[in-house]
Structures
1.
Amino acid sequence: MYTVIGGVRSRAFRVMWMLEELGQSYDMIAAAPRSDEARKYNPSGKVPALVDGDEVLTDSVALMQYLADKHGALTSPAGTPARARQDAMLFWLIDEFDAILWAAAKHSFVFPEEQRVPVIKDSLKAEFARSATQLADRLDGPYLMGDAITVPDLLAVHCINWSIGAGFEPVDDRLGEWAAGLRKRDAFKAVRARDTA
Ligand SMILES: N[C@@H](CCC(=O)N[C@@H](CS)C(=O)NCC(=O)O)C(=O)O
């Protein structure tokens, strides 16, 4: 039994989606970012964290990959060229999707007001749209890495959802339709159902 620290409307969603895909049961402690509760598990106050027995682990992407490796699903094995390609896709998504969305969040509500530069958001939105088109161009098969769902698929769909919530322009139609298909998965819907707010 795992415990996920962080609510459905945070990057903890990714970890819960992975757990659902793997058929693992888990509790959720919907600690808000920077709350005292979150700091019990991660001194920085960032969520998500994952409690696995005596271990407390952090970072959504590390956690998704850890779970995929541990349970031997949704990933190519470590030390294979296929895994290197999968990791390259994952790191590309961190650079070109997650980091852009996070920068926009920082300049919307994370930074103290006097440090925000709201005008940067137009440029971030344009950059995100370019990245989305690049990803759409690379789509070749039902999933990002081909015939099997892997960690990057979950990260990409979560980021696309985040972009919608953040008021970014809709992504390239091809990518939008692809993401809509993944949102039909039972595992995705099970996490959404936990969002009671
Ligand atoms: N790279 C980290 C980022 C985690 C992160 O920044 N989470 C946000 C909530 S989604 C947070 O806790 N922000 C509070 C802060 O940065 O102080 C991950 O993917 O887990």
2.
Amino acid sequence: MDILAATTNAKPQYGVILTNPVLPLETAPHTQLEIGFGNGEYTVQYAEAHPDVMFYGVEISQACVLKCARRAAGLKNLRILNADARYMLRELFADESLEHIIMQFPCPWSSNKQAHRRVTAKDFADGLAAVLKIGGEFEMLTDDEPYSLEVREVLGKHQALALTKYEVNPEREITTKYERKWLEEGKNIYRLVFAKTQAFSVGRRIAQEMHIKIRHEVTAQEIEALRNVEGKKNGGLAFWKFGRCFSDGESYLLETLTSDEEFGQKFYIHIANRDEGALIRLDQTADAFLTPAVRAALDDAAHRLYEGR
Ligand SMILES: C[S@@+](CC[C@H](N)C(=O)[O-])C[C@H]1O[C@@H](n2cnc3c(N)ncnc32)[C@H](O)[C@@H]1O
């Protein structure tokens, strides 16, 4: 969109949506993040009001990403990503790279079965603690009092986080759609702020590149035989399944589905015969991250194609 605008002088119709970015993401001295921005109203107003801040928005819903991108047309300091923040937070950002993270009216995931999805789940809390700068803040708003108390209790006990504010019905310059809805219904709004107090780090699960070479060429029939083959690893936390195979006569694209701890991706594995062997890698147009399940799928495809002989 930016290139088109530069050559035609047309006003851009969308803001910047990042697809298949190099990780960790680029940051500036003042970099902030909003998780689950919904229709993007707050996101765009906040980024407009803070041109010195590099502002990222991560949202799991594609429809919301598009809504926000339309509002953000022409805005240079906002970058929007379609991703599951629970899994991706620690992968997207390096340690100590963000000065502020805001999450407004997340779903409280009330049942015990859904506890792993909450902000209080250990993995997510560790991710927050890692990517914040020391002194940086995590701010959360909710209309659900029991949830606010759970977050206060659990994040407050994290070794690298300390509660600095717990407010009821705070005055806010910019409000969100859900906030106005809850206030109109006469509900209270709870605001919690935690500061990062000490260095903290977590391991990352995503690799940057992976190419596998096998020592003989492969045929379309051998790749097609992988259809519906599935596998799992890490006690079922990583799962993959192969689908259809497409070919342009020179190389092949193998449709693949993966899931890492419920983080789902769909992409193509690119297979090309070269130098009396075959090269297997993630297709470059695939908007997929090299998670453990994706790496296992590449490995599995390569092993099956190699050993199928
Ligand atoms: C109740 S809405 C609130 C939207 C907005 N913050 C507001 O206050 O109007 C919760 C939002 O979080 C998003 N969301 C839920 N789980 C998410 C996840 N794991 N990663 C990123 N966004 C998520 C949903 O798609 C939805 O847009």
3.
Amino acid sequence: MRGPGQEPWNRYRELFPKYFWSEETRLASIIVADAKGSYVRDTSGKKYIDLTSQWATNNLGNVPDEVLDVTVQALARYGFLTYFMNPHLPMIELAEKLIENRPSPNLTRVFLELSGTGAAEGAVKHAVEASGRPLILSFLGQYHGLSIGTNLIGSLSAHERRHWEAWGGGAVYAPYPFPYRRPRGMSETEYGGWVLDYIREQILGRQAEADRIAGVIFEPVACEAGVWIPPSGFVRGLAKLCHDHGWYFIADEVETGLGRTGTMWAIEHFGVAPDLLAIGKGISGGIMPIAAVMGTEEVMGRAKVAAGTTFAGHPAACAAATKTLEILRRDRIPERSHRLGTTALRRVREWERFDHVGEVRGLGLCLAVELVQDKRSRRPDPERGRRVFFDCVEHGTIPLWNYGDHVIRIEPPLTISPAALAAGLDTLERALRRHAAR
Ligand SMILES: Cc1ncc(COP(=O)(O)O)c(C=O)c1O
């Protein structure tokens, strides 16, 4: 770990003040010298197990050689071409590969973007412009990005929306049916039903009539909120509401897609066919920034939508993404994520024996440990989250943690070896034990 006074750290701190949160960040953050597979190494040569896959992006591990090779070749051949003036082969090949791997046959059209934010916003733009309706139904706790639009469509935290609250107005919100924090005495299924009633009675009855709503944006697993896995009856009920009212069902799979939850797409767990699918992060093996939206003929085939950005569909990024999709299928990576995730979940569930671990949950290699003051109160314990996170980093494992949160997440590369995963979990378990007492 880099200590105070280290030159790269000081330059980092001075040049990027936004990323420097406190003195403590200095002790935990590392300046990466190189990254490979499931590891990163800092400038002092210390190696860390990467349980973040760089915010669920490097699903094939850090710097996958095959993806890197095709990217370099595509760069040499095409450089940058704009998709709008000079469409190119890699973007067509990528679109075909996406369609080959779609969650449901109704998705026949593709739109390219640069980031998950752009994909989520692009999907919303398509829904609003194709329907001619102004509103989007969203769920409290979801994250779709930090552009002005996605920040206000999402609602991960009031802190992130600070200064921008008044710019909203296009979204109406229902609670996300997060089973662990359901009202006492309610079953998970009942809670899902309660949220559907809330939409019918409190939203449609009091805030907006159904024909003013263009669609629903939904994270099939709300990862940033802390891996909230909704009751499956709820997701099917939501799809039925969409069908009944002519709402487009937008699945935001920027984080859950591409094998993260043990299937290629998380929406497959619920047997629902979305009208729009936002894809990002892991699509290009972490080698190039690119994102995409898939849509139905109805929502994408006809409407002329004002969406896009210059660098969307960079030829080399398209080539990287096509190769990544090929590898995900060839090497049965979603199945691997399911297998490793199931084994890991069996082990980490045992941590619920600690009074300060409220719940451990997961789907595929998307797991979360919810830290609470005690099991009875279930009060979130961000201070303990902080201590556990810093302890892990100090001992050579980097879990995923939103600064200031009470949830520690485990989202390693889907290619991580069972031994490296076990070693990372050992570190986390020791940290949980060390910080058991208040
Ligand atoms: C569900 C979801 N949507 C959208 C985004 C935004 O993606 P990006 O940060 O690549 O713009 C994220 C990022 O974490 C996400 O988890």
4.
Amino acid sequence: MAGIYIHIPFCRQACHYCDFHFSTNLSTQNEMVKAIVKEIEDRKDYLNEEVNTIYLGGGTPSLLTSDQVVHLLNTVFANYDVCSHAEITLEANPEDLSLNKSKELAEAGINRLSIGVQTFDESKLAWMNRAHDANDSFGAFEKARQAGFKNISLDLIYAIPDHSRERWESDLKAITDLQPDHISFYGLTIEEQTVFGRWEQQNRLVQVPEDEAAKQYLFAIEYLEDRGYQQYEVSNFGKDGFHSRHNHGYWSGIWYLGVGPGAHSFDGESRRFNVRNNPNYIKAIKEGLPFYETELLSRIQRINEQILTQLRTVKGLNLSMLQKDMDVDFQELHADFIDEISHQELIEIADGFLRLKSKGFLVADEIAVRLFFSE
Ligand code: SF4
């Protein structure tokens, strides 16, 4: 099984916290779609397995016209062996989802929407420079359901400065009242190259203290699980049968093709990184010039990536797989550290898996790094 990721590098306006690759100059959207279509065709031999998931992410894929979505998907269908029950997700911003647009997306073959709600607090939406208000979010969800979408994910942000715990609880209540099939939530991180990064340097923004962020995170896990959403990864929760297959693919190390500027690909041995610049990407694709860099991963790097990604899942780190791959008793190798984090109630070991507990998810990456093999 393999996955395809299509990066749509345009946004209506720049959210103050975002450091993804996008441009607010929409004038090259048509040219960009043509370039991505060409990349999909040119790389048709990259995957020789059946494609199980297609994900249009960004940026803001819902800025595409329905015809452009159809064109992209038809190119994928014509060039890859896509399974008949593929999960096909499109990330959408609430302001883009009219009833008509939702119906057209469903007709185009999109069967899962991931809608960026972030918060229902109007003043925080404006502060973050989001292009929508809370009513747009309610309206988008309702229209997507009316258009027939049976698999909808909503995104929230926690640890927003000056956002009280009560406010966070009211966001969680509003989102669960809608009964989406899947919920993702992320702590607000302040990246240097963003407006918020500048504000922080100028002392105009103070991040939520770590212990408060942790309380909001742990509160949300309990809140969502009480309402029937199973946590399956650090930030992801789904109702039964609605865990994201695309995410699972990344975590289980399957091959994936990433097209568009800034997209990554993985073929089991190397990672390929497309240039993060719209005009350069379009020019290179048109003229047949290189538009990516490749990094060959060593066996140890690949195993360390598995440790990092598996640990972030509720299933946990498969210890017998490590024993087989590395011919080493992993528990014995890290006996002191494992003992220490067990006592801190960050992990548990059961049925051959090392699993993070809720508190452990807060420091998942730090724990993974301590468990890495060295070259
Ligand atoms: S809409 Fe999404 S990708 Fe675009 S700037 Fe905002 S957070 Fe970033």
